[in-house]
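**User:** You know discrete backbone vocabularies at least as well as I do. Would you mind producing a protein record, from residues through to fold? Write it directly below this note and I will take it from there.

**Assistant:**
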Amino acid sequence: MKCEIAQQNIILAQYGELPDEYQFPLEQHLNTCDDCRREWNATLALQEDLALLPMVEPSPNLLAASRMALDEALDAIPERSAGQRFWGNAMRWFGNIQSAPALATLLIGVGFLGGNFVARYQAANAPKLPAPVILSNPSAGSIASVSGIVQTPSKDIVQVQYNRLVPETVQGSLDDPQIRQLLMLGTHLASNSEVHAQSVGLMADACRTPQGCVGGQDGADELRKALLTEFRFDKSPAVRLKALAGLQSYVGQDEQVRDALLDSLMHDKSADVRAQAVSMLSPVQADSSVRQVLRTVSSQDVNPAIRNASFQVLQGTANIE
């Protein structure tokens, strides 16, 4: 017994409608097929759960309304055509032969032989497909996925549907919104670390253009936020320095940039990044949080040059304090 037939018989058996002659083959199949046995157990568990629920009887009004609606629907059915009567009589005739196993077996045999003959005829007269295509131009793009496979009537020919990744190139200025969007994509979709670093460097250059990275038009704010993310989380000190270069002119107006610099000054492992952060914080030395961090760094940083640079910046805040 195949799994498809077994799963149909499982439902009939659960409701007590499976004929006796199919009961034993189903039990044998369940003993050898793990998937169908799990299907049987799942159906049995569902039946047990449903048995715990109370049986709700429909109200008399609902039954009366349903019978009236059914009578009206039956009265509205038009008289059957000759074709409908023919198919109706044919279905009744097929129902009658269920009690005649010999006749049913004969009809099944005739249908099998007829179907086999038709299939052989169609296979013999099917048009010949062209020879398989050999990929002779790999530069057109690599294969991304196979979307379909079809076995043709000929055993030696198979149809394969696939999708290509076709490389494309776009050229434009750093102020172009499309170029900026592609640069941001290059930070997390780059094929290698060099492309990633180039994307961050060009994003920094874009933030230094006259259009800059301020304002809601053309994704300017998103570009600055992408640079800020690279500065906070990229593992390469060189990439973090590139991101800092693009954020330099926004320290005074963007509190998020200033907070990222303070956090980097306290925790970044790169001395070059910390030194650059000290230099960029000099214009906002009047900020109390900046002075507090600079005091800590000037006394606790492991790098003497950074301690000295922080101390020099603090000298400019003496008058403020």
